[in-house]
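Side project, low priority. Logging it here so it doesn't get lost.
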Amino acid sequence: MENETQTKKLVDDSEVTKLENTKEEEKDTEMNPKGEVPALAEAHDDQTELTKEDKESLMKFETLNNQEIEFDKAKIGQKKKTEFRRIPVPLHRYTPLRSNWETILKTLVKHMKLLVRMNTRRRAVEIKTTKEVRDQGVIQKAADFLKAFMLGFELQDAVAILRLEDLHIQTFEIKDVKILRNDHLPRCIGRICGEKGKTKNAIENATRTRIVVADTRIHILGSFANIQFAKSAV
């Protein structure tokens, strides 16, 4: 009997504590209808509100308007760097260079506005930019033009490099495609050229390229896609 009375008292005490807790929660909800905890709400209000000292420190903060900022300004009369290129001349291209020297000077000096000279000691053609040159890529085009002429291309074909931007030169050897020995190598070169250059001219006209066969090396002038077609045809 005593045990039963003790258990009844414990149940009654637990029910009383539950009722008290529910009453306190109802009071808190009445005070804070939004459901915020009062301690957190007070802390939030303390963070948002600024003291007088903080306001004064913000007002005294130095802005960038009071300071003078200087940037490196590009000068209008700034001197451009002079660029220099040297293109070596092989021995077998001396005679065509002499015969076409006047036309080369006209294209490079008058139209491209570059300085050109022949250095006989180093056996090379030297070109240099001037103050009148506006585009710095002109000297690279002129160097490619002279390289194409030294490789064996005709002057009219080499001038196309100056006019068009998509043209470039690609060289490869016959050994890279297939290793040939003894008499097979000159036979292969003869087949590429054909009788009086007929096969070479046919490949050039079909692929819109220019081909120069110099011993075991083959030089192709044209656009990237056309060079690949010509290379596969060869």
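Brief comment: The longest helix spans residues 2-31.
Revisit when time allows.
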